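Colleagues,

For the teaching module next term, I've prepared a clean inverse folding example: a structure given as tokens, and then the sequence designed for it. I'd like students to try predicting residues themselves before seeing the answer, so please don't circulate the second half yet.
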């Protein structure tokens, strides 16, 4: 799999998911214009998610592999960030 293909697939997948979640959140908890913007963002998230599914063949990638690798990368990034934060707090509290 080419690196740029994985990059584009991951970017589209995460962007669609985040737009869907934030749009639903804004549509549910917002008021007035924010509700309508939230609904538009949620629909845009669905469209981008569908686009990432459609583009998997021209990009020559397996979407399941991208999702699995992205999950592994996310978990490792969170664990690394928490360890770094704990080291920072330990140094800060010792001084």
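(Answer key — instructors only)
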């Amino acid at each position: 799999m080419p690196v740029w293909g994985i990059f584009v697939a991951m970017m589209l997948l995460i962007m669609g998911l985040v737009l869907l979640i934030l749009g639903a959140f804004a549509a549910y908890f917002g008021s007035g214009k924010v509700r309508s913007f939230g609904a538009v963002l949620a629909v845009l998230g669905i469209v981008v998610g569908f686009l990432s599914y459609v583009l998997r063949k021209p990009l020559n990638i397996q979407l399941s592999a991208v999702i699995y690798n992205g999950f592994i990368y996310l978990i490792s990034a969170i664990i690394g960030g928490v360890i770094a934060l704990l080291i920072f707090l330990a140094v800060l509290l010792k001084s």
